[in-house]
Every structure is written in structure tokens, then in C-alpha cells.
Write a structure and sequence with these properties.
2 helices, 4 strands
């Protein structure tokens, strides 16, 4: 899956089944999240101070709501 990263926005690392990982911006989180077969194995991390730090699904939902993006898939 191809995504274009905008470095001026928050960057996410989404990992899931079979050790598959994708780096994306908030706008692509839904598309990548729904591409995994096993939804229970997905972890979402965001880049903070140069490192990827795990973030809760609630915080991702809040970010999606703030940007007026679909958050109901979480």
C-alpha cells in the first residue's frame, strides 16, 4: 500500500497481523486500519520526539474527530 507522508503533520505507524507495518498521516489511518484482516492485532503508534510511541484508540478517535474525519471504524 502506498501512502504519501506529509512531514508537517503527525506521523503514525500502524502495525498488525503477520508483522505488517505502515507509516502514514492521519488522513490515511482509516484506509490502512481497514486493510488488516485481524483487527484485534492492530497497534497504533505516533511519532513523538523522534520515536514512535504507542497511543490509545481513544486519542486517535479524538484526533480524527478534530480533523472532521471518519472515526467510527475504531
Amino acid at each position: 500500500m502506498i501512502t504519501t507522508i506529509n512531514n508537517s503533520h503527525r506521523i503514525f505507524l500502524i502495525s498488525g497481523d503477520q508483522n505488517t507495518s505502515y507509516v502514514c498521516n492521519l488522513e490515511d489511518v482509516e484506509r490502512i486500519y481497514l486493510s488488516f484482516d485481524d483487527m484485534s492485532s492492530i497497534t497504533i503508534k505516533h511519532r513523538w520526539n523522534g520515536n514512535f510511541v504507542r497511543c490509545s484508540k481513544k486519542s486517535v478517535k479524538d484526533m480524527l474527530k478534530a480533523m472532521q474525519l471518519n472515526y467510527k471504524f475504531l
